[in-house]
Amino acid sequence: MAVVCVAVGFLVVAGVNFWRLQTRQERREEAAVRVPVSVVAARYAKVERSLRTTGTLRPLRDVRLYPTVSGKAVLEIAAERGDRVRKGQVLVRLDDAEIRARLSQARAAVAAAATRVALLEKDRARLEALYREKAVARQRLDRIRSEHEAAVARLKEARSALKALQVRHRDFTLKAPMDGLLADRYLDPGNLTDTGKPVVRITTEDRLKVVFQVSEPDFPLIRRGMRGECRVAAYPDRIFQGRVQVITPVLDPMTRTAVAELHIPNPDLALRSGMFAHVRIALGSRRALVIERDALLRLPGTGTPYVFVVRAGRAVLRNVKLGVEQESLVEVLEGLQDGDRVVVRGQNRLSEGVAVEVVQEEGS
């Protein structure tokens, strides 16, 4: 019996020692396969919500000058493409030989009618004096008065005809309606005009605009006067500042978007209409839970975002719902809590439950 007890005790001790050795071996093997990772704690930070979009720069004012008379030859276009023009400057002259001849005739008619009126006024005054002295019959005075009234009416008609021709003559010159640049010429001297086709185009390049779409979620946040910035490929290191000046009051029921305009001062004419622009409008800021953008992974096929957090030395997969992106940070709306240790390097080697070794930790 004593021998049996000794044997049993020996087996128990041997088993315990074997278990300890086995556990140590497993721990050594586990340590050998731990994936080294770097983590950054999820934290609350101030994030700025912004609207990012693209568009084409357009002149704030874009005017095409159309002739009001057809079939007239262009005599002169007084500016070339790219030239500065001033408001009121004569840009286009049309062949006005015919109307100038008619103007000469109309002026002669006015002069003749005025002379006739002047003569009849003298005759009327003379006869009125004679009539008062009873030296002339009343019928003769009435006749001269009637002739004078008819002459005055003809003078008025002649002056009206002259004025109409003078107004018509203005149509043979096209003037710049504003300061700007001559952006295009559609006709050359010698071409005939057509009232349905423009002759020149003038734009204001010292102040441009970008027309962009505003989505339904962003529509309540955007306001006139908000600051915005614009970047173009021609000047990759420059940011051009502007302000939102136009917002349509309703959304398009087909696209569920509104239209807005960012107006950008361009005093040095560095920007030109037609350039492709990247636009950002700051819509406001708030405190939100954020993580490093580098932590994000996406499921193949669906693109669903997820991250790994470290819990008790192991990787835990967390699906996340994202919000605003801001430089190297991204807002997390669901899936994480403040202080969660999120893997930012080494996550591509992880899967659920894999043992990890934190070699670098920030934000703890």
Tell me the structural class: alpha+beta
How helical, in percent, are the residues?
Answer: 25-40%
In round numbers, the mean pLDDT is: 89
The tally of domains stands at 4
Uncertain stretches of 5 or more adjacent residues: 1-14, 26-31
* Percentage beta strand: 35-45%
The count of strands amounts to: 21
Q: What labels would you give this structure?
A:
six-stranded antiparallel barrel; conserved putative lor/sdh protein from methanococcus maripaludis s2 fold; disordered N terminus; OB fold (Dihydrolipoamide Acetyltransferase, E2P); alpha+beta; Beta-barrel_RND_2; Elongation Factor Tu (Ef-tu), domain 3; RND_pump_MFP; 3 helices; 364 residues; RND family efflux transporter, MFP subunit
Provide a quick synopsis of the model.
With 364 residues, this protein is an alpha+beta fold. It has helices spanning 2-33, 97-132, 138-170, and strands spanning 35-41, 43-59, 62-65, 74-77, 84-85, 90-94, 173-175, 180-185, 200-203, 207-215, 227-232, 235-247, 257-265, 276-292, 297-298, 305-311, 314-319, 321-326, 329-334, 341-345, 356-362. The protein folds into four domains: 32-47 and 288-362, Beta Barrel (conserved putative lor/sdh protein from methanococcus maripaludis s2 fold), CATH 2.40.420; 51-60 and 206-286, Efflux pump adaptor protein, beta barrel domain (Elongation Factor Tu (Ef-tu), domain 3), CATH 2.40.30; 69-94 and 172-203, RNA polymerase II/Efflux pump adaptor protein, barrel-sandwich hybrid domain (OB fold (Dihydrolipoamide Acetyltransferase, E2P), Beta Barrel), CATH 2.40.50; 96-171, Orthogonal Bundle (Helix Hairpins).
